[in-house]
Amino acid sequence: MSDYTFGIAIHGGAGTIEKSLMTSEKKAAYMEALETAIDAGYEVLDSGQSAISAVEAAVIELENCPLFNAGKGAVFNSIGQHEMDASIMDGKTLHAGAIAAVRNVKNPITLANIIREHSDHVLLAGTGALEFAEKFNIQIETDAYFHTDHRFEQWQKIKGSDDFQLDHTSEKKYLGTVGAVALDQNGNLAAATSTGGMTNKKFGRIGDSPLIGLGSYANNNTCAVSCTGSGEYLMRAVTAYDISCLMEYKGLSLQEAAEFSILERLTALGGDGGVVSIDKAGNMAMVFNCDGMYRAQRNKNHKEIAIYK
Amino acid sequence: MSDYTFGIAIHGGAGTIEKSLMTSEKKAAYMEALETAIDAGYEVLDSGQSAISAVEAAVIELENCPLFNAGKGAVFNSIGQHEMDASIMDGKTLHAGAIAAVRNVKNPITLANIIREHSDHVLLAGTGALEFAEKFNIQIETDAYFHTDHRFEQWQKIKGSDDFQLDHTSEKKYLGTVGAVALDQNGNLAAATSTGGMTNKKFGRIGDSPLIGLGSYANNNTCAVSCTGSGEYLMRAVTAYDISCLMEYKGLSLQEAAEFSILERLTALGGDGGVVSIDKAGNMAMVFNCDGMYRAQRNKNHKEIAIYK
User: Fold this and answer.
1) Residue B1 belongs to a domain
2) Which CATH number fits the domain that encloses residue A27?
3) 3-state SS of chain B: helix, strand, coil percent to 5?
4) Which residue of the set B16, B23, B169, B177 is catalytic?
């Protein structure tokens, strides 16, 4: 039996998730997708595999689901393409891998994980990352695979304007990213984050999701964190690493650290968003400063799937 | 008279700077270039202008000097191009701007600063960043401007191989970046960092220099930091923000924080590099864990220019 209360938490984005637009069918679809992903990650942990494998497995499920803004469900940029960002970090070694503005990779988190394992680098961008991927057995999809009607309609509404959306409400308030954090039976932590960025994004904008310490962070001495929300604010607040530092340098608990970083720091800057996080004892904190966050958590004693507060 | 001991510190990269290869002419040229840059930044502060303007002015001088790996002296990537990264952060507002993998911009730090001021985004990459720049009066140079014979020779030695160099010794040990940190007469802090990355780099590699919290960080409550060194290690250690957190959450002085972050943390990971930093009282710390760091600092009482320990 494990000495560690192994467990996993995931998110599928945070923001204004209007209840009036949320039909019971739609809600059920989201809840089912979150359950599929949390169970996929949990099974990896339960079988004794690593936290890195668990967060990758959970994020792959979220990337393969068209409901979330990552992988198949990635939003359209200003020229109708899907440019995806992802990052993954191993809390045991502090090794990390990440990609930014990469097209046509079915599972960006898998490419980020390959970079973590096989590259001297941490972050590869654009066609260069694809060139690196050629050496590995990475599944490539056509642009058509990433076409989903609801994302296309979102884009059509603002295409050609200078407007951009963090995800898919007209209020620019749903902030789409997916992510996972896990503690495995050996006491190792990992974090992963993946996104399609913002609808109609241009100028090669890169957000927090592919950035270590900003969108994702994991360290066996403290915690693992995956962020979602208004990326520019999370970047300026260095949110993922901030939570780790609050634990390490100030002695806060994970819950206190996540609450301070999101409810005080990010809010003071004017940013919206949230985090899922887990510490080295298996405590989990899911904190957000907006209406809702698609999220789930599971360990051997507890399973929870939720959208609203 | 100012209540603040305003001042500025700069670096031109850190690493193994072999004394046997350093002629007295070469050393004099580096010392003169560092003096030009520190004086340019100091004059901005002395005239009452902002820390942001001072760090931009100092970095522009370093970018315009062919001796340093940034701007005109940027190294060649694997296909003979100059792809540059830069970031700048204002400690008063925590606003930041950054560019990654951008070609042909004479002064990358100026484009980063324009993004800080005029964009909703923090980080723009590649041709997208250039497209954004079109709206502003940014000086563009031909590829020929960025050709320097010594960088070309470095590239020729490893071109076509899988090797890459952090800068310009065959030992891969000189880690080229330039940066500046400043405190102005109004008590505002700022940080700026700029680089051409690694000789023969490929796969769209992005290092720490354009990343907020990793290569650059500034916060009026704590300090301003610019990093140089082995970028992947600085990324995994989240070095710039780590120093700020050690001050804010653990109560360390700037010198203690910079020493812990570089001499303990970065060293334990296996990374080489250093930082220049300044706190809200005007104390400066220049710390590195390798043979040398091209560096300078100046306030009203003191001026220092140095290469070795």
Assistant:
1) no
2) 3.60.20.30
3) 35, 25, 35
4) B177
